[in-house]
Amino acid sequence: LSPHSYIEIGENFYQVGLNYFNRFLHLDVKNSEAYLVDPGVDDEFLSTTNWFDAQTKELWFASWNAYETLRRNSNPLDKVTVNIWKLPLNESIPTKIWQGDLGDSLHQLSLSPDKKFLILAELGLRPEKSSSGRKLAPSKVLILDLKTMQEWRMELPAAAHVEFDPNDTSVCYFSAHNLGLIGPKVGIFGQGSIQKVRLTSSGPQIMATFTHPLSFRITTHIVFNQKNKTLIALSGYPGHIFLIDSSTMQLDKIIEIPFDDAVDASQLPHLCRQDSYGITASHDGRYLFVCVTGAARIIDLETNKFVMEKTIEGDTGFTGHVAQIKLETGNI
To answer: What single string gives the DSSP state of each residue in 110-128?
Structure first.
């Protein structure tokens, strides 16, 4: 099922994000149980990472017809009809919020902290047919004003994730990964970037963009407070963790993680040799927990040193994101 991400949907209950699947995977971590849930949208494919309203107990998600994905395999620029829904957890029939043209491979749906705007990002990984596999078809990001239902779209190379500023509910950060599929392999098509965007009633305003010669395959980014500043941490292939000052969108520092691969920017696309990185920060912002297939590390951001390095044995692969969950014994 390729589990990718998670959201909390109640005490000891979590939804695990799945790619290209028509059911939700829900976990009961207290009783160590897992089960698949049909949201009642005619077996359409479901968005990977969704949003849960803890006040109303409603799950917001998106869907599209699997046939649209088959068509897009032939023409990556084909239009895709997308539906956005909300579903109370104690009911079986969702309410349709929006329908329109966007894309398939819907990777993340999120509402702004003030619930004024909805963001839906497509992770488009297909090269354009006319580019002989050298350029990606653009991914679409939907910005929807939930009061007026006015909509805007942005296009980014392999957009996927949005994170909101912890101190300003109108500011968010979009990732453009600039990676795509070359047969069964993942290829890097260029440097990735992070866009700082302000959401307004007249549309999104791009405030600043961060990129770097080494910011390849930004598989994840997080935004967190550390003392008197707000930082963005993002991963770069094959072994870089970038720390960005969110106020200036300038590089704060790079932390190196040893790995025996290098990306030659003059010979792109570059086939990746490892899975994605997952990152999460401690509550005080001092430590980063970094996970990848076969290894986990904790980095002290004050000393820039690894305070834990652990090998993960077994025939497993890391396929997404790292986060903290609450159990009766504390945080994990």
So the answer is: EE-TTSSEEEEEE---PBP
